[in-house]
Specification:
The protein contains two helices and seven strands; from the N terminus they run ααβββββββ. It is an alpha+beta fold. It has two domains: 51 residues; 104 residues, no CATH class. The strands form two sheets. The protein has a four-stranded antiparallel sheet with strand order 1-4-3-2, with no helix packed on it. Strands 5-6-7 form a three-stranded antiparallel sheet, covered by helices on one side. Keywords: Membrane, Transmembrane, Transmembrane helix.
Length: 171
């Protein structure tokens, strides 16, 4: 049922966006026919700048990765592990761990972060807390806390807090 709600919300967002673009061009055409080309151009650029102000810029995007340790030349090549912690069938939230193998010691995590991939129309993942602690030889416990932001045409309508914890073997 949760996957159906998620898919329905994504489809609703995509259809609404397409209708918004359709009516935007229809209004521009109507203004052009009724008033003239100059007001239509002013409306087109004015409305485009308002719509683009809601889109995130490249400078506002931040990485979810947290560096824990630095690469050591005395050990093996860094490896990468990806574990899915929330599977919505159409989108997945996963924890990404980059670690370095040591021949006669416990492997060391270098960086850790989360990624939200798949059909993500209208839903954003915002990571708040992420932690990884060693339990025993190459077994680690992870804790991730964050929130899903559900938005409709760029307007946030619901925020859902989520916590995930579990064990991961880095080998």
């Amino acid at each position: 049922m949760h996957s159906f709600f998620y898919l329905s919300f994504c489809v609703l967002n995509v259809v609404s966006f397409i209708l918004l673009i359709y009516y935007f061009f229809k209004c521009t055409s109507l203004i052009n026919k009724r008033i003239g080309i100059i007001p239509a151009i002013i409306f087109f650029f004015g409305a485009s700048s308002l719509l683009s102000s809601y889109l995130p810029s490249e400078t506002s995007k931040k990485s979810n990765d947290i560096t824990l340790n630095h690469f050591s030349d005395k050990a093996g090549i860094p490896d990468f592990k990806n574990i899915i912690i929330d599977d919505k069938e159409f989108a997945r939230l996963s924890i990404d761990v980059q670690y370095q193998e040591f021949p006669y010691a416990q492997n060391v995590p270098l960086s850790i972060g989360t990624s939200f991939t798949g059909l993500a129309a209208g839903v954003k993942w915002n990571q708040r807390i992420i932690d990884i602690t060693p339990i025993k030889n190459n077994l680690f416990q992870y804790y991730v806390s964050g929130e899903y932001k559900w938005s409709f045409l760029g307007i946030n309508i619901y925020t859902q807090s989520k916590r995930f914890e579990g064990k991961i073997v880095l080998d």
